[in-house]
Amino acid sequence: LVVLALAVPLIWWFARRQLSPLDDLALAVRERVSHLHGGQPVAPVAEGGSPEIQTVARAFNEFVGVRNQIESSLRETLRRLQEQDKALLATQEVGALGTFSFNLETLAWSASPIINDIFGIDEAYPRTLDGWAASLYPEDREAVLAYFHTQVIGLGRPFDMEYRIVRSADRQVRWVQEVGKIEHGLDGQAVSMNGTIRDITER
User: Fold this and answer.
1) pLDDT of 16-39, one tens digit each?
2) Rounded average pLDDT over 122-143
3) How many CA atoms lie within 13 A of 169 on its CB side?
4) What HEC string does the chain produce?
5) Average pLDDT of the chain to the nearest whole number
6) Taking 60 as the threshold, does the pLDDT of residue 8 lie above it?
7) Could you tell me the end-to-end alpha-carbon distance of the chain, in angstroms, rounded to an integer?
């Protein structure tokens, strides 16, 4: 009994000594994992303890190193894209050049803010084929729509045409140049048209 009484504390002390580094590693990993979703760099954990624990810690640190590099690259890419977007918007504003995307399956379109300025429309304006057709100058409407239906939708050719519009906001007549490139689906059918519209009235 005396031997048993002395052995129990020794066994407990030895077990705690072995498990303590593992507990510390688990706590450190748990703390760092909680920061993985924040996008910020994650610090490595200490590589102490038994060889097994060191191996686990080293593997985690390698993962953290790769993750930090990826996050850093993503942040730099995002920063560059934001700068490019600003530069593109500034260029469009100076050149009165707007961009658009026309879904040929739903006949709905979206466009950059410059298009709103050129056509004199707001966000509530219907961005549909009928909405675009309504902005066309009455004497040009039939010819422009015929070109769109036969050349673009029918034959899948790029849109390249100059035509007149009537601004919705003030009913001013403006000349625009529209250039659009057709995108095809896996089945070869035209699915969208992406392009630019420029105000060439003062040209």
Assistant:
1) 444 456 666 667 766 766 666 666
2) 95
3) 11
4) CHHHHHHHHHHHHHHHHHHHHHHHHHHHHHHHHCCHHHCCCCCCCCCCCCHHHHHHHHHHHHHHHHHHHHHHHHHHHHHHHHHHHHHHHHHHHHHCEEEEEEECCCCEEEECHHHHHHHCCCCCCCCEHHHHHHHECHHHHHHHHHHHHHHHHHCCCCEEEEEEEECCCCCCEEEEEEEEEEEECCCCCEEEEEEEEEECCCC
5) 79
6) no
7) 106
The structure tokens listed for 73 are 């690259």
Tokens of 40: 């910020």
pLDDT at 142: 95
The conformational region for residue 120 under phi > 0 = left, psi -120 to 50 = alpha, else beta, is left
How many Å apart are CA 53 and CA 50, to the nearest integer?
5
pTM score above 0.70: no
What number of other Cβ atoms are within 10 A of residue 138's Cβ? 8
Contact, 56 vs 50, CB < 8 A? no
